[in-house]
Amino acid sequence: MVKKMHAEHQINITWINHSYNHRVSPTLPLKNNFLLLPGTNINFEVLETEKSMLKNGLLPSVFFRFPGLVSDRQLVFKITDFGLIPVGSDAWLAKGQKPQAGSIVLIHGNGNEPVGVNDFIKLIHSKTKAIAKKEWLLYDLRESVDKEFENKSDSTAQ
User: What is the DSSP string of 87-131?
Assistant: First the structure.
């Protein structure tokens, strides 16, 4: 349903890389979990996801979200070495977190989290009047990146 809404230009989705295997151990602490699990091949995790997205007609963005929102300094550097920008979230809908002004909303649009997708669609419908009046807005993360690069190119041209 979300892909259809995107294709029909009802919503504009920024598809964010999140790792290919999304390995997790229910017994390990967060500092050793998800992409920090021993034996994780970060090159595979990033590149296979992008290849899969492209095969499925999705355009990967410059953003990356760590599984479980778990990372460390070294892993952040590995992700930025790919030219990707790590993003977090403070509104994971399926976990009951409510978006506030400036929130980055997290939903899994891949079918793993129908509750989050349904909550997102309900959220959009509940804000229809406020959206029409431009009192409630969704911002595209890509626009902030574009603005950042515009500002950098303006300052280097002077």
Answer: ---SEEGGGTPPP-TT--EE--TTTT-HHHHHHHHHHHHHTHHHH
